[in-house]
Amino acid sequence: MIDHQVRVHPSAARLPREEQLAWKLAAVATGTAEAPDAEAAEMAGNRVVDNAAVAVAALRRRPVAVARAQSLPHTATPGASVFGAPPGTRVSPEWAAWANGTAVRELDFHDTFLAADYSHPGDNIPPLLAVAQHTGRDGADLLRGIVAAYEVHVALVKGICLHEHRVDHVAHLGAATACGLGALLRLPTATVYQAVQQAVHTTTATRQSRKGEISSWKAFAPAFAGKAAVEAVDRAMRGEGSPSPVYEGEDGFLAWMLDGPDASYTVTLPEPGEPRRAILDTYTKEHSAEYQAQAVIDLARRLRERTGPPDRVRSVVLHTSHHTHHVIGSGADDPQKYDPTASRETLDHSVPYILAVALEDGGWHHERSYAPERARAAGTTGLWQRISTVEDPEWTRRYHDPDPARRAFGGRAVVTLEDGTVIEDELAVADAHPAGARPFDRDGYARKFRTLADGVVTRRAQDDFLAAAGRLAGLDTAGLDALFPAVDTGALADSDATLPKGLF
């Protein structure tokens, strides 16, 4: 691996493009091997399964139905498939990326990578799959693009923190998707370089989408970045340039969005010819909630056996990392995180709510745990108000440990019962994490898909999809269609019919 120092340069310095971060990212993409590392390739197939699982489970949810309705008028040939659309429907790839990206993200239930910043690298897959279908590429091309996108995404998330400047994490996603598309299409490095800069420039937004009263835009935001990356690649392929250098320029990303004129970051990228294995550093979710809450849910299931009925609990204090405390904990200072009428998007970013429900129910469900009547239950609201978080420097240090095997995203819960008894327990990582008690393997991804697809996708269609995903590298162009499991579109028609009409 090579450490690249990235800092602000004045325009008069005329920083050569080969020394710019955007070029180095593009070179990683275009240098991705035709046949990726075997373990990385297998994990890419797992993430295709994971994305489809959470997408089909979300098809009847309003934001997903809206995105699908927006996409369907934009028919195209060859075009790309849309989750939940009638068989044979094809739309233009950027609109397929929009609809499918929203479906994948809506339940906050797919993969994650946490380091200096946050990310959901699986958000790269919908635009890559859409462009692969539209341009007649095969499974091997798609696989190469996925591995390249993950490599770039993980490197940026490790090296450049966005959230401390209240910049939304999709800014890294846009760059990664542009790189993945470059690898998929075998574009010249110079073309990918321009596309990366356009994508970064157009997808930089504030974190207000994940603050206070969180709306459905949280699901739309990565889909927007994917759509913007597809459009950026299209323009770059036509010879159009971009704001350069987008990262290092004196009026650029680092100087004005991040640490300022004296900004300096280290981004570590693979050497030429080095296998792209960053996807193996990422992990998926067993529970439909913010990743820092995964271990908390598993911890609550364990604590429940010792605390007894929740009405015996006087208080719960979760000692955890800076990120967890300030983003989804009481340190966020968002009253909405304790509001029984809050949106689902807000509740899945409220660890006090999640911990309360998990303590009461002994588990978590992607629909029932967020139902309005569940959030407003008297017992839940009372327990919820008695739960708080505090930052513990040791948990913050473990959150940022450079060794993935020692990195921790959980916390230590101190439960005080009404009789004064104190019960303590801690959990470093979720059970499904690679270092957890029950790491997800290929069978785990398949079980997750079957569970979420039940009642939406027939058993035969489930089998067909899993078989196709299992031979991703060997799929021909037509075979990519099989990565969209057949669903009962009639069951979606009623919900789609109630949507207000927009422009399209």
UniProtKB/TrEMBL annotation:
Major enzyme class: lyase
PANTHER family, per the entry: 2-METHYLCITRATE DEHYDRATASE (PTHR16943:SF8), 2-METHYLCITRATE DEHYDRATASE-RELATED (PTHR16943)
GO molecular function: 2-methylcitrate dehydratase activity
Gene3D superfamilies to which the protein is assigned, alphabetical: 2-methylcitrate dehydratase PrpD
Assigned EC number: 4.2.1.79
Coiled coil: none
Location of the region described as Disordered in the Swiss-Prot/TrEMBL record: 321-343
Family designation: Belongs to the PrpD family.
The MmgE/PrpD C-terminal domain, residue ranges: 287-466
A matching Pfam family: MmgE_PrpD_N
Gene source species: Streptomyces eurocidicus (Streptoverticillium eurocidicus)
Chain ranges of the MmgE/PrpD N-terminal domain: 28-265
Keyword terms of this UniProt record: Lyase
Protein name as catalogued: 2-methylcitrate dehydratase
